[in-house]
Write a structure and sequence with these properties.
The complex is a heterodimer of chains A (241) and B (250). Chain A is an alpha/beta fold. Chain A has helices spanning 17-25, 69-83, 94-107, 208-224, 235-240; strands at residues 3-6, 9-10, 13-14, 32-38, 55-60, 87-91, 111-115, 117-121, 124-131, 136-142, 147-151, 166-171, 179-185. Helices cover 25% and strands 29% of the residues of chain A. The termini of chain B are far apart. The chains are: A alpha/beta (241), B alpha/beta (250).
């Protein structure tokens, strides 16, 4: 049974995470069909054949120049319904996290999200996903047909398995979206939460935070003072840090 | 503005995860449960929008066990007007089942905004918001970290890898809130006292089993010991390779 790997384009070119998706999708067996949405041919899309895709499908529509959530979801869901796929694999990137549930809802199933491992088991798929901020791993059997999965970025190292992939370009029609991406602007450096680890992102609003800050400050002060000099303690100041 | 905020009761982020004897779930003995931190952003945003509009209603909807009433009271103490508890003893691991019952509850009235947290800090599904949006057929923007609303149109910003996506959408809409959208308020004593008198409707809810079946909940693999790659400039190449391929930090 074919697995559908959903590639991720941005600005008319393929993002590298797409190779991870194609690599991860092959854990469920062959063949793997890769699908991408674009206003025209997506730059670099032929490269996924190098990573083991048997067929590359480009769904084209003028509305696909930028990420168009509703149009992408509509086109992908229609493709998924026609194909009779075992699984539809997304990347759990910012865009994938937005797109996967929309497609899943149109297919009447849930997403097994943010996977770190997956394997075919009988008619279904057995997946592993971190829960409780990575403090535990949940092993889940996905019985839905198709299984909609999203893979955690940076876990599935792309492996080259060159294949002579066939390509297909399909023009699709989609309804006008109610949600449109106007632009992608540059973020001020160091401000993107996506670049921070999700596990450590919640220290805020904890009653322990000021205490920990105080302890850190005392520890720092102790090390920076010469022997015998008492360390000044300014609790108010340290608690704000 | 009539705003629905969908919240979840989750174990506190500082919980020590202890696996129950069935090997499939969290041992809830001694675990402190809180309002999901991402949902706090949603509650705060709803309250600010209502205050800005000068009138309206903020309704908190929660799917959870009877004990989730306490979680709803937290949101009411922050300033929400009333609560609805969709009471189910066991929430199945399939988020589509949760989305179905929440959608069924929301579809009964008209809303200007429906807010969700981006994800729950227990099961990390980050999808119930968009699933509900599809089910009730409203436009949806997920992981909103900046929001401007004028009339029946809105502009939201979402963080994506290497940039910020600016999204236009029309109201009514379903939004999921991310960190950075606002600074949630602490419930004041006055609010906590007032919350006790606010209406809270409990509706028994039956959920389907869904198509996801939990096989096991296990502790994460132990961290491996550190190791010395080599010494001197000769080891640099190997170190860079390991950092890139094994540690995946480059």
């Amino acid at each position: 049974v074919t697995t559908l790997a959903v590639l991720e384009p941005r600005d008319g070119a393929l993002r590298k995470i797409s190779f991870e998706v194609v690599t991860g999708a092959q854990r469920l067996g062959q063949p793997v069909e890769a699908v991408v949405c674009g206003a025209g041919t997506v730059q670099g899309v032929e490269q996924v054949g190098k990573f083991g895709a048997d067929k590359i499908v480009t769904l084209t529509n003028p509305a696909f120049a930028k990420y168009a959530p509703e149009a992408y979801a509509q086109a992908l869901a229609e493709r998924a319904k026609q194909g009779g796929y075992r699984a539809i694999v997304f990347a759990a990137s910012a865009t994938g996290k937005d797109l996967a549930p929309r497609v899943a809802a149109k297919l009447g199933v849930a997403v097994a999200a943010d996977l770190t491992d997956l394997a075919a088991a009988g008619g279904g798929v057995v997946v592993t996903r971190p829960v409780y901020a990575g403090k535990a791993l949940l092993t889940v059997k996905v019985e839905s047909q198709p299984a909609v999965l999203s893979l955690r970025p940076n876990v599935f190292t792309p492996v080259e398995r060159p294949k002579a992939a066939t390509s297909e370009v399909v023009a699709v029609s989609v309804p006008a979206g109610r949600v449109t991406v106007r632009e992608i602007k540059a973020a001020p450096p160091g401000t993107l939460a996506a670049s921070r680890s999700p596990q450590t992102s919640r220290c805020w609003r904890s009653w322990r935070a000021p205490l920990a800050a105080g302890r850190r400050w005392v520890r720092r002060a102790r090390w920076s003072m010469p022997d015998g000099v008492p360390t000044p303690i300014k609790w108010g100041r340290s608690a704000r840090r | 503005m009539k705003i629905a905020v969908c919240i979840k009761r989750v174990p506190d982020s500082e919980t020590r995860v202890k696996i129950a004897t069935d090997g499939k779930s969290l041992d809830e003995a001694g675990v402190k449960f809180v309002l999901n931190p991402y949902d706090e952003f949603a509650v705060e945003e709803a309250l600010r929008r209502k205050e800005q509009a000068g009138s309206g209603e903020v309704v908190v909807v929660c799917l959870g066990p009877a004990a989730a009433q306490e979680t709803i009271r937290t949101a009411l103490a922050m300033g929400a007007d009333r609560g609805v508890l969709l009471q189910a003893d066991k929430i199945p691991p399939d988020p589509f089942e949760s989305a179905k019952v929440i959608a069924a509850e929301l579809i009964g009235s008209t809303w200007d905004l429906v807010l969700f947290g981006r994800m729950a800090i227990d099961d990390y599904h980050h999808q119930v918001g968009p699933l509900v949006a599809e089910l009730v057929d409203l436009p949806c923007v997920s992981a909103v970290s900046h929001l401007e609303i004028a009339g029946t149109t809105g502009v939201a910003e979402r963080e994506i890898e290497g940039g910020i996506e600016v999204v236009d959408f029309s109201l009514p809409a379903v939004l999921t809130t991310d960190k950075g959208l606002n600074e949630p308020r602490y419930p004041a004593l006055k609010g906590i006292m007032a919350a006790k008198k606010k209406p809270l409707e409990v509706k028994p809810t039956a959920l389907g089993a869904g198509s996801l079946e939990v096989l096991a909940l296990s502790p994460p693999p132990q961290r491996k010991d550190g190791r010395v790659v080599g010494e001197g400039p000769a080891a640099v190449g190997e170190l860079v390779r390991l950092l890139r391929e094994e540690a995946k930090v480059l």
